[in-house]
Amino acid sequence: MATVLYITAHPLDSQSSFSLAVGEEFIEAYRQANPADEVIHLDLYKENIPQIDADVLHGWGKIRSGSSFDQLSDAEKSKVARHEAIVDQFVAADKYVYVSPMWNFSIPPVLKAYTDATSVAGKTFRYTKNGPVGLLSGKKALHIQASGSVYSEGPLAPVEMGYSYLKKVLQFYGIQSIEAIFVEGTASLEQAPAIKEKAIAHAKEVAKRF
């Protein structure tokens, strides 16, 4: 049995979001193909994802200097503990499905905060004399990304920093099996329904082998 983190980063619902609509169809097809697997849905807009702020940095600094967890302030304890829970859950999973829109060429801020929380030395990667090494080899990931224009290829490809960013981060963790489903060109109202249906059909096929 595998554990799948279904990570969504959109404040609306699947009736209003192309990425969520495709994501829901994917995860339903995945469940049908893998009934024994555990799927954990993380709606990042409903989760507590602390940013790396002064409390977090001070808390980490105190612990590195030899202080015990109990010596941290209440705010430091809360945020540091939450960060640890996030990365531990991430490390324990076998597969990751990210679902997000492209905003300003990249990912929503809450997904960036989640990615920051999972990028922890000794957990998802480690430093060696030859440079950093990922610790999550053998796992796999998928990113479903919706955008108004086409960014996966063509003249706008150089400014695509959503999937390309996540891919680099996941490769840094040692994950090499990474796929993407692009729901692109949805700003064209006439073509949007067909684009959505094509992406859903693709997602269902990917789900059978993911």
TrEMBL record:
The gene is azoR. Homodimer. Belongs to the azoreductase type 1 family. Keywords: Flavoprotein, FMN, NAD, Oxidoreductase. It catalyses: 2 a quinone + NADH + H(+) = 2 a 1,4-benzosemiquinone + NAD(+); N,N-dimethyl-1,4-phenylenediamine + anthranilate + 2 NAD(+) = 2-(4-dimethylaminophenyl)diazenylbenzoate + 2 NADH + 2 H(+). GO terms for molecular function: electron transfer activity; FMN binding; oxidoreductase activity, acting on NAD(P)H as acceptor; oxidoreductase activity, acting on NAD(P)H, quinone or similar compound as acceptor. Transmembrane segments: none annotated. Gene3D superfamilies: 3.40.50.360. Quinone reductase that provides resistance to thiol-specific stress caused by electrophilic quinones. Pfam families: Flavodoxin_2. FMN binds at residues 17-19, 102-105. InterPro entries: Flavodoxin_fold, Flavoprotein-like_sf, FMN-dep_NADH:Q_OxRdtase_AzoR1, NADH:quinone_OxRdtase_FMN_depd. Residues 3-205 form the Flavodoxin-like fold domain. Its cofactor is FMN. The lineage of its organism: Bacteria, Bacillati, Bacillota, Bacilli, Bacillales. Binds 1 FMN per subunit. Its EC number is 1.6.5.-, 1.7.1.17. This is FMN dependent NADH:quinone oxidoreductase. Coiled coil: none annotated.
